[in-house]
Amino acid sequence: MSHEKQTQEFDVVIVGAGLAGLYQLLKLRQLGLTAVIIEKADQVGGTWHWNRYPGARCDIPSLEYSYQFDEDLQQEWNWSEKYSAQPEILEYINHVADKYELRDGINFEEEVVSAVFDESASKWNINTSKGQYSAKFCIFATGCLSVPNKPDFQGLENFEGQILQTSTWPQEEQNFSGKKVAIIGTGSSAIQSIPLIADQADELYVFQRTPNYSIPSNNGPMDKIVEQEVKSRYSDFRKENSLNGFGIAAISDEALVSETDIDEVNRQLEENWQSAGLGFFGGYADIAMDKDANAVAANFVRDKIKEIVKDPVTASLLTPDYHIGGKRLCVDTGYFETFNKPNVHLIDLKQSPIKEIAADALEADKRYEIDTLILATGFDAMTGALTSIDISGRGGVKLKDQWQSGAKSYLGIGISNFPNLFTVTGPGSPSVLSNMMPSIEQHVNWITDCIQWMVNNDKSVIESSQTAEDEWMLLVNEIADTTIFTDTKSWYNGSNIDNKAKAFLPFIGVPVYTELLEEVVSEDYKGFIFDKVN
Ligand code: NA7
Known about the structure:
Layout: E1 7-15, H1 19-31, E2 35-38, H2 47-50, H3 71-76, H4 86-99, E3 106-107, E4 112-118, E5 123-128, E6 132-140, E7 162-165, E8 180-184, H5 188-200, E9 203-208, E10 214-216, H6 224-232, H7 234-242, H8 262-275, H9 291-308, H10 312-317, E11 330-332, H11 335-338, E12 344-348, E13 356-357, E14 361-363, E15 367-369, E16 372-375, H12 384-387, E17 390-392, H13 399-402, E18 421-423, H14 436-456, E19 462-464, H15 466-481, H16 510-522, E20 528-530
Parallel strand pairs: 1-2, 1-6, 2-3, 4-17, 6-18, 7-16, 8-9, 8-16, 9-12, 10-11
Antiparallel strand pairs: 4-5, 5-6, 13-14, 14-15, 19-20
The structure holds ligand NA7.
Ligand NA7 is lined by residues 145, 151, 166, 184-190, 209-210, 328, 349, 376-378, 491, 496.
């Protein structure tokens, strides 16, 4: 008797049951196609399932960080805060899974190990931890920040206390009362969690390699008047936001710092500091483009840090010296203020890197005895989820090898040599430099329309041409070179991961991107090759 598991056949296999995968499943079902989601976790939610650390919340207002495909859904759901916390976002995602009856299309606790394109059958063979699938199309809805970066600290395996990582936080609530806690990293995850951990822990040691700019969220309960106003014209609100460079609601950026009186600039920045969060650049078009304008905004925040943090040495260590926005801007609730607490200690890893982790201590400039070690060390961003799966395309070419010297994709959706494979918010699309929700919906709609077009036009295989892909990545970089984003070490350009190709990956500018995406469709998917004959 054979023990071989049967191959399950679908029109489409989707990888990941986060916000992208769920909507993709719904859209494909509406097209009448058979589709399944394969999901590693035991539940839906993607990033909002994994990142359960204290203080985890979205830094885009919830009225914007939500689906817009169904007016009924956007009217019926009520957010309790301006920026909702992780549990509420997860609840929303669960509501969506229930409302559209998506759960029976998801195979949980199953991990995709490999995906191999069979050229003779024009099908993807997908191997998972539990079985095999065959599908005409394979859609990776694997997220931009889903593969944790776990640096190889010497002696980490010898640590006998509790080790936590922000990006794979346990489902049970953690209590740090009576504990000495160390946290490594000062990115967004650390900046959100540090104030809450500091409230509980006896001692909190913050190990910082690079300081970050952070803007107060001014979060609070949802303003019912604002909510009502937005809900009364939701589709117009979404349209307006889509015209912003980052796809968010912000003061229109028509003025230039370079042409505005400095007192007026500082007044506007103060207003933004008080209310705009991630939209802190709002009002000025040149902060993200021009070094001098950027310096004005950077100095504004540097002065704020000096003002808030009482100890001048700590304040100076917390002050970034690079372009504001070069690393993703953070949004916080009481982050800098936390360093005024007597139980919070900042350790500068630039001066004294981590030497070793012992059974009960972390050694850097000196020995810190600790009970809990928290890694807030980020992600293998934008490409990690794709390169960690063994994906083989035409001629057996491996995606990991093809991207060895830098990821290349056409529109952030298609990859040459990988036919009938789509990525949602892949490298080369606005993705992490935009509000992810509309960007996800834009891609899912585009991919679904493309598949529908193929059915209507009797096409079975789509693949982006290498030329289109090369030209696209050139454009991504040409645009980025006109901004301040490229000369700072960040996960936008792979600098946070050892041995990763240093290439800037997000497309900057939502409205231009949208125009180009529509142009491709109106010209019968130019740049893609259909039914390629070898
Ligand atoms: P980030 O923003 O990548 O932050 C990771 C932090 O960890 C950052 O401060 C890093 O310092 C630090 N890090 C990484 N590796 C090391 C080593 N080896 N030693 C010391 N410190 C290290 O990730 P987050 O999870 O905070 O946020 C990611 C995004 O999620 C966020 O922007 C939102 O979009 C949501 P570095 O700056 O590299 O010197």
